[in-house]
Design a protein that fits this description.
Blueprint (H helix, E strand, L loop, with lengths): L5 H10 L3 E9 L5 E6 L2 H14 L8 H7 L4 E10 L6 H18 L7
Antiparallel strand pairs: 1-2, 1-3
């Protein structure tokens, strides 16, 4: 088994690809949805999957429907991914997500949003 020291672990962490994106969590029963963005898309997906496994809604706007319809009535779909460019600051990366979320909200304006 290969063990890495703290310096190597930190270097790997800093070199990892940071992929964020815009995603939608949709109620399959009534069609209502929320559009969200995350700097760490993988983390957002993991959080949603964990909330389904534990039946504990992490989205405040969905809680009443989550309780009424159950966690299996919700699905997460990634709308667009964005990889952080090494030349951008975290603030610039965050602004990109704001713009992407606004674009997707306009694009999906026919949906009933929470």
């Amino acid at each position: 088994m290969l063990y890495l020291n703290n310096r190597e672990l930190k270097a790997q962490y800093k070199e990892r690809k940071i992929i964020g994106g815009v995603y939608i969590v949709k109620n399959k029963e009534n069609g209502k949805a929320i559009i969200e963005s995350a700097q760490d898309l993988r983390g957002a997906i993991n959080r949603f999957n964990f909330s389904q496994k534990t039946n504990c809604c992490v989205y405040l706007r969905l809680q009443s429907d989550w309780a009424e319809y159950g966690c299996e009535s919700f699905a997460l779909e990634v709308l667009e991914e964005l990889e952080m460019d090494k030349t951008k600051s975290v603030a610039e990366f965050r602004e990109d997500f704001k713009a992407l979320k606004e674009l997707w909200t306009e694009k999906l304006s026919e949906l009933e949003l929470y």
